[in-house]
Amino acid sequence: MSLGIILVSHVADIPIGLHKLLKEVAADVPITLAGGTEDNRVGTSLEKIQQALVDNPADDILAFYDLGSAKMNLEMAIEFSDKSVHLFDTAFIEGAYTAAALIQAGVTLDEITQQMQPLKIK
Question: Is 86 a residue of the active site?
Answer without folding.
Answer: no
